[in-house]
Amino acid sequence: MLVIVAIFVGFSYATIISGNAATYRTGLPLGSALPKPLPNGTVVIYMLGVQWSWIPQNATEIVYINGVQHNISVNNIITYINGYPYIKIYPNQPVVMVLYSNNVVHAFYMRLPHGPQNWNIVPGIDSYAFFYAPPTPGNYTFHCAEYCGIGHSYMYGYFWVM
């Protein structure tokens, strides 16, 4: 029985590390749920979750030139309106969120046209989220889905699909 368990654990570990077993909707650490290679034009957004706000740190865009991946810093994606972050993306654009918390457990939740998405964020461990932006322009709200204190209800922001 121990040999069978060891075989299943080894197989599971190998497929998770290679990214073959995880769907793109999971927020597994180590980036194992990300497609390999990332699509051209993918926006990578580094998001810090603190009590009680989401703070986008920076954003880069992945561009392939002659088959070589380049991360180009983009400055016009992240804005703030009334103190809440607005992240500007284009319809059907691939997006990678690198989610990080330095204090308590948070959950990055958003409702997209193809269904709700939720990624748990454990302090000190990067979580990776990959999704395609909605095809229809508009504002899509993201918020914290794990109660993290008295200001929890104010912990939200927007994806502005334009």
From TrEMBL:
Keywords noted in UniProt: Copper, Metal-binding
Cytochrome oxidase subunit II copper A binding domain span: 40-162
InterPro entries noted in UniProt: CcO_II-like_C (IPR002429), Copper_CuA (IPR001505), Cupredoxin (IPR008972), Cytochrome_c_oxidase_su2-like (IPR053624)
Assigned GO CC terms: membrane
SUPFAM superfamilies xrefs: Cupredoxins
Top-rank taxon: Archaea
GO molecular function terms attached to this record: copper ion binding; cytochrome-c oxidase activity
Source species: Acidianus manzaensis
Name of the protein in its database record: Quinol oxidase subunit 2
Lineage: Archaea, Thermoproteota, Thermoprotei, Sulfolobales, Sulfolobaceae
Gene3D superfamilies in the record: Cupredoxins - blue copper proteins
